[in-house]
Amino acid sequence: DQQVKQNSPSLSVQEGRISILNCDYTNSMFDYFLWYKKYPAEGPTFLISISSIKDKNEDGRFTVFLNKSAKHLSLHIVPSQPGDSAVYFCAASGSNTGKLIFGQGTTLQVKP
Amino acid sequence: ETGVTQSPTHLIKTRGQQVTLRCSSQSGHNTVSWYQQALGQGPQFIFQYYREEENGRGNFPPRFSGLQFPNYSSELNVNALELDDSALYLCASSLGGLRNTGELFFGEGSRLTVL
User: Fold this and answer.
1) Distance from B71 to chain A by nearest Cα, in Å?
2) What is the CB neighbour count within 10 angstroms for residue B1?
3) Which of A1, B77, B97, B107 could be a cystine partner for B4, CB 3.0 to 4.6 Å?
4) Using 50, 70 and 90 to split pLDDT, how confident is the model at A99?
5) pLDDT at residue A98 above 80?
């Protein structure tokens, strides 16, 4: 069973516009959510996270929103830049497990 | 600060063989996790080692085993390789074992192809 789902395999946006990447989860025991970015031939790198006690966390151009009732989170990138083109993974963890459950990833392409 | 390094970066094996993948954790990190990433999928948790002991395991058979050494480096061993074991194997280090909130530092991975 896929506990973390990213239903859009790919997304293409124009430079300067907003990119919105979505993620749904099924396990209500998850209490920490993260976004990772992955370039080809590199390992995933941490981007931003949010605890379940919050509904928004912002870091520069990146904002993560959490809707617990809908079991949905999203990553907003504003403004999008060509260097943001990568695969984005949503991940979730339960309290004190140290184990991340990843979604399938969304490939973002930002066109100049 | 030295990041997470993995070796080898690429390798090819045949069915039934055994493989050992190695990982050096980021300086100061005492926890190592291993993930398998199949093509087109997200990483899947294999297991985690904290202070040289297995500290959680995903849905992988016993032929997947590991070790963590006193310097916190780690090995992933896979016996009796199957075609479906072909994947990118990612090592990630972190602090705190079970108390870790989930921010992991990944290596570049070892790409295993089983023929």
Assistant:
1) 20
2) 5
3) B107
4) confident
5) no
